[in-house]
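User: Sequence recovery, please. Input:
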């Protein structure tokens, strides 16, 4: 496998890991209403498990309220059941046409726990970056061992992989800082 391709695949995998982290961050409650809290909940819609965002319009008319307007009002009870069974921790309020979720503000202790949870998720992503780097370096060493690339090309490729890791860790740090600040301040 060409060295450029090894670097490209490593970068692609790290970007995907970072994207997964961002999705997880969006689903964490911050004390402010956000469609991200519920949009990926899986609802049983006529036998098919479907993300809520495909079944309803989700809006936040004010910082403490999420409004869910299903395109098909016959699934309101199914949406309510899904929200109650989820880890969102908010009781849905329905009028038969839409569901309202009142997002209570978080207390200081809960905010600190969420900040610690964010840090743990970020650390797991860093571990994923390191595993991707290790895998890419193993490919590079294999190419060098088979004499498909020179020692200098191998070192250069490993430096490129390390640069990719540092760039993605920087982006991860920025995302973590932004989300932590969102959680700790209101």
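Assistant: Recovered sequence (186 residues):
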């Amino acid at each position: 496998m060409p060295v450029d391709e090894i670097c490209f695949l490593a970068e692609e995998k790290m970007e995907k890991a970072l994207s997964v982290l961002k999705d997880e961050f969006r689903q964490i409650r911050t004390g402010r209403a956000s469609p991200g809290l519920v949009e990926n909940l899986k609802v049983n819609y006529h036998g098919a498990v479907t993300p809520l965002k495909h079944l309803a319009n989700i809006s936040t008319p004010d910082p403490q309220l999420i409004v869910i307007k299903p395109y098909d009002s016959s699934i309101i009870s199914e949406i309510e059941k899904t929200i109650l069974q989820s880890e969102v921790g908010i009781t849905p309020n329905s009028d038969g046409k839409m569901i309202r979720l009142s997002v209570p503000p978080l207390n200081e202790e809960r905010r600190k726990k969420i900040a610690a949870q964010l840090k743990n998720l970020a650390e797991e992503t860093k571990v994923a970056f390191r595993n991707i780097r290790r895998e890419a370096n193993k490919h590079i060493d294999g190419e060098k061992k088979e004499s498909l690339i020179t020692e200098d090309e191998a070192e250069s490729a490993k430096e490129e992989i390390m640069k990719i890791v540092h760039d993605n860790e920087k982006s991860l740090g920025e995302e973590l800082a932004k989300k932590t600040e969102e959680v700790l301040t209101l």
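The chain has two domains: 3-26+107-184, 35-102.
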